[in-house]
Amino acid sequence: MILRSLYTAVWYAAAPLIGLRLLWRARRQPEYLQHLGERIGVYRISMREPVIWLHAVSVGETRACAPLLQALLDAHPDHTLLLTHMTPTGRATAAELFGELAPRVQSVYLPYDFPWAVARFLDHFHPRIGILMETELWPNLVEGCRQTGTPLAMVNARLSARSARGYARTGALARKAFARLSAIGAQTEADGQRMSDLGARYVTVTGNIKFDIAPPAPMLALGASFRNRFGPRRVLLAASTREGEEGPLLEAFARLCPPEVLLVLVPRHPQRFDEVAKLIRRAGLSVQKRSTNDPVMVDTRVWLGDSMGEMYAYYAAAEVAVIGGSWEKLGGQNPIEASAVGCPVIVGPHTFNFSVVCTQAIEVGAALRAANIEEGLGMALELLDNPARRKAMSEAGSRFAQSHRGATGRTLDLRIALAIGRLAEAAGAKIVLNSEVSRIAKGEVVADGKTIKADAIAHGDGGLGRSVLGFVSNTCTHDAEQTRRNARAARESI
């Protein structure tokens, strides 16, 4: 409690800086000044109950959640789905991907982690369940969900060794937050172990949901049109590059690569498109922008991918890709999209945010690792000159992506743990679950000397599913009105 109070005090002290940071970001991206009330838990929209809440921080998490979002809508046709974000690009991506599903799917900003703002958010939407995508963990949000009885899960969860060390330095603050999560679906055994070491109790390895995203047919068609635009030139893609990487990349490209090689450069952050265009010209390289839709000239050295949501198309149009975020100490970028379309990948030395998937891709022959960008471009040139090896890597990538599918279904199975937790709450018991899914599937758990039976949830998909959320909603006494009362009480107690 003391640590969380100190943590909250830091948030209050930093409030003026948060406002200044929004203004600073708005210079490049004016959307940061929109929907400001939502940042403190003030919302104009309302949603038909019952509500499933899914938090996807930014672009990557929003795209990753697509299979899960659709599966939740299909499994729970009587529920609406609330998507929350922290960035305008995440919100824009949600509008692009799920706009046609409105009003059943709506997007807002998650408030900053002030206790009263969290209480307002929960009081306004009173979700039946909260699902956090990948890495976002806010202590006051977790506590607010505990006080209102809202089950909170973290899915597609990943935690690098570096991030784990950062959490560990906060001591009991992080341990309590992890311990109070109702369920965790980790991407890998290593991710799950690091979370368990930090106090998480209900950890299951479910895999990476991104593997379940099939390359959209329109994006593959767009990639083919890009390829036609390039003509007979060989195409090297620099995907999702970050600040500090483009300069050395462009210098090495100008020095090592012949004119017949076209570099397709796609920065990760849209607010940097103009900045990167200036870097290209400064390197003495001719540049065209994808946004102009002009024919690609034979003397153009760099084609700047200044668009959002088209990464599948860029991978489909390229013969080899070097992955950004891995050439500086930034943690890398996920190679799954490239593998799914069969694009050979070269990563740099810094892939700690995606260490397992990158290692696996290298082991099966879908990717290569280089020590620096110069070595990476040298590898890329060798692949461009070796069609047989490119083909082998392409086929390995496709097999790799196909073999790791199924995470969405395993993630949906986590509903059972959340349902059992609700049943225990309804019975007035404190529950400690073991990790044996088979035991949970029987619908029987012993807690505080009470045997809690839930035979109704032992039927359906794989013996786990039926509409667990619906079952919980109909069975447990902790209904929406009770959630409102608890939220008001929590807010008033602050």
Descriptive tags:
Rossmann fold, globular, seven-stranded parallel beta sheet, 494 residues, 46% helix, 15% strand, alpha/beta
What is the topological layout?
Blueprint: H1 2-26, E1 51-55, H2 59-64, H3 66-75, E2 80-85, H4 88-98, E3 105-109, H5 115-125, E4 129-133, H6 139-148, E5 152-157, H7 161-168, H8 172-179, E6 183-186, H9 189-197, E7 203-205, H10 217-230, E8 234-241, H11 246-256, E9 261-267, H12 273-282, E10 287-289, E11 302-304, H13 311-317, E12 320-323, H14 336-340, E13 345-347, H15 355-363, E14 367-369, H16 373-384, H17 387-403, H18 407-412, H19 415-426, H20 437-441, E15 444-447, E16 450-453, H21 468-475, H22 480-493
Helix pairs in contact: 5-6, 5-22, 10-13, 11-16, 19-21
